[in-house]
Design brief:
This protein has about 150 residues and is α/β, with parallel strands linked by helices. It has one domain: Transcription Regulator spoIIAA, CATH 3.30.750. Helix 1 runs parallel beside helix 2.
Length: about 150
């Protein structure tokens, strides 16, 4: 059963549908004076991918990825990043609660970072991550690309 969550100014509604890859959401206006969280759930087979957004006072969105980011969920991340970019938000991707990522997830994140650097859009990826995600990042060889200042 879907649930509706209203934003602080009444302008936002989010629908969560367990067991469905569909989810509807709206971008929160910058004029909101407080930070709040938005949960976006996607379930597929026996795995769950979740994005949680924290809209901060400075206009930055912290996009926390949780669960498993694989080929079945990657389009949800891509779509949300496009929406946040179009709305002009600076984004920080948080991988610390991501338990698994496959090559399609790594490809999406590195592609978004590459485009952001090319087009001068502020998109960063936080470094802390699970051992499984760190192994995948190292196996693909993108650690230096994602965190060039840590060389």
């Amino acid at each position: 059963m879907p649930s509706r969550t209203a934003g602080l100014d009444g302008s936002m509604s989010i629908w969560h549908a367990r067991g469905s890859p569909e989810c509807r959401h709206a971008v929160v206006p910058r004029r909101l004076a407080v930070a709040f969280r938005v949960l976006i759930l996607m379930a597929h087979s026996d795995r769950v991918f979740r994005m949680e957004e924290v809209f901060q006072r400075d206009g930055t969105v912290r996009l926390m990825l949780m669960g498993e980011l694989d080929v079945a969920a990657v389009e949800h991340l891509a779509s949300r990043l496009r929406e946040l970019r179009k709305a002009g938000y600076a984004v920080r991707i948080d991988l610390s609660s991501l338990g698994f990522i496959d090559s399609s997830g790594i490809h999406e994140i590195t592609g978004a970072v590459r485009e952001a650097r090319r087009d001068h859009w502020q998109l960063e990826v936080d470094g802390p991550m699970s051992d499984a995600v760190a192994r995948a990042v190292d196996l693909v060889g993108v650690r230096d690309f994602l965190w060039p200042d840590e060389r």
